[in-house]
Specification:
Blueprint lengths: L4 H7 L4 H20 L8 H9 L4 H11 L4 E4 L6 H6 L3 E4 L8 H4 L9 H11 L4 H5 L2 E5 L3 H10 L6 E4 L7 H22 L5 H24 L9 H10 L5 H20 L11 E6 L8 H8 L3 E6 L4 H4 L10 H12 L11 H13 L4 E7 L3 H16 L4 E6 L6 H15 L1
Parallel strand pairs: 1-2, 1-3, 3-4, 5-6, 5-7, 7-8
The structure holds Double cubane cluster (BJ8).
Double cubane cluster (BJ8) binds next to helix 7, helix 9 and helix 18.
Length: 425
């Protein structure tokens, strides 16, 4: 990245030394994991470029947008409705939670047996290496799992501009009411933050922008049902991760352009891997940037990932929002309907998720399911056990993996994944 970003990073308060160490490690991992792949579609070059500039050009864009009067909102969860943020001409960005950083300092604040995703958010803040967190005018947390709920109480001391959404835990009429009240409150908060009144036209435009982005990701995912799969699971995951950082309009155009190329590849039987490669559906906890360990191990072991049942994947964009409605309240109601379908494991009970995994297994013609649970993530790990029974009853092979962001278990994971791929081959 160009050296003149250093003054920008200094001005927003990053710790330059720690940040250099992070970028160095990321650059090496990216080269070894992504750039070393064979048969990549040519249009993945755009996503390589975005990643190479994610702390550079993109941060400059956000700062320029702020100078022009726009606000930046950072989020940790797919329950934060981008439609509302865009309707006020603000920008929503995902916050980095995919790597261990400053763990010694983090474990002075949080117990060791907290999931890596939560600890990562604290590590990035304590060591001042996440420019998105530093430029955000508002940081949105949520009362989802117990870990996050309690951790945000501690995060508030480090992030004074933290807003915590109160989210339901049950798909009941009361649960829907709670979500509706929360989104009304969030809409007012965004109006106050931006000074923009969210009109029906503005909200409709916000919905359309987000629907278009989700439709592009749906199109990408349908193309992965082909055998040979026209794109690797690693590249598809990367695109899902970039979706949280990039400008939505530009991102949508880039995904559609990639899909045009993938359609040609499907017609010509060109794959990222040869036809007949064992196909894996990945299911479970979200994989935030730069958490690439497990997909890398799976594809190195000779399988191809054909879908992600995850918030950084299909759970994040499966449903669209209805755009018809004459008032802001009508549209807000549609937004509530849409988000109330998200089948995060924090809901109890949560039968929809099991159904989705079975559907995705069939739709993407997978040969087996790898369930990914982050260590100490009670919701997903507990849910993985009935999921395993259900899939086994249907004759579907499943491997339950529990891991974290460290590299210590790579050898052990490789052995287990290789054995699983033998079974599903
Ligand atoms: S909608 S999945 S993004 S909450 S891994 S922190 S659940 S202990 S991330 Fe999530 Fe929203 Fe749900 Fe999606 Fe807790 Fe588990 Fe850690 Fe997790």
């Amino acid at each position: 990245m160009s050296s003149d970003y250093r003054s920008m990073w200094r001005e927003i308060g990053l710790d330059l030394q720690a940040h250099d160490a992070l970028l160095g490690a990321l650059g090496n991992a990216y080269r070894d994991i992504f750039l070393s792949q064979n048969n990549r579609p040519r249009e993945t070059a755009y996503f390589d470029f975005v990643v190479s500039e994610v702390h550079g050009l993109r941060i400059r864009e956000l700062l320029e947008a702020r100078e022009a009067g726009r606000k930046v909102v950072g989020a940790f969860c797919v329950f934060v409705p981008e439609e509302i943020v865009l309707a006020a001409d603000a920008i929503l960005v995902g916050l980095c939670t995919g790597a261990d950083f400053a763990m010694e300092e983090v474990e002075k604040i949080l117990p060791r047996n907290t999931c890596s995703l939560i600890k990562s958010a604290f590590g990035f803040k304590l060591s001042k290496v996440c420019p998105f967190l530093e430029v955000a005018d508002l940081v949105v947390g949520e009362n989802t799992c117990d870990g996050k709920k309690k951790a945000y109480e501690q995060l508030r001391a480090l992030v004074p501009n933290l807003y915590v959404m109160d989210l339901p835990q049950q798909k009941s009429a009361e649960g829907r009411c709670l979500l509706c009240r929360e989104y009304q409150h969030f809409l007012r908060t965004i109006e106050e933050l931006t000074g923009v009144e969210i009109t029906v036209d503005r909200l409709r435009r916000g919905i359309e922008l987000v629907n278009n982005k989700r439709q592009a990701l749906q199109r990408l995912s349908r193309l992965r049902a082909a055998d040979p799969a026209p794109i690797s699971g690693l590249d598809a995951l990367l695109i899902n991760q970039v979706a949280f950082y990039d400008d939505p309009l530009r991102f949508t155009a880039a995904v559609n352009k990639l899909c045009d190329e993938l359609e040609e590849r499907v017609k010509e039987n060109i794959g990222a891997f040869p036809a007949g490669t064992p196909r894996v559906l990945l299911s479970g906890c979200p994989m935030a940037v730069p958490n690439w360990k497990l997909p890398w191990i799976i594809e190195q072991a000779g399988a191809v990932i054909v879908g992600e049942e995850s918030c950084v994947g299909e759970r994040g964009w499966r449903n669209l929002t209805e755009v018809s409605g004459e008032t802001v309240n009508d549209l807000l109601d549609s937004i509530v309907d849409r988000y109330f379908q998200v089948d995060c494991a924090i809901f109890t009970p949560n039968p929809d998720r099991e159904r989705q995994v079975v559907n995705m297994y069939r739709d993407y013609r997978a040969d087996g399911v790898v369930h990914y649970g982050l260590q100490f993530c009670q919701p997903y790990i507990i849910e993985s056990m009935p999921m395993e029974r259900r899939l086994q009853d249907l004759g579907v092979d499943i491997l339950r993996v529990e891991t974290d962001y460290s590299q210590e278990d790579v050898g052990q994971l490789q052995t287990r994944i290789e054995a699983f791929i033998e079974i599903i081959s």
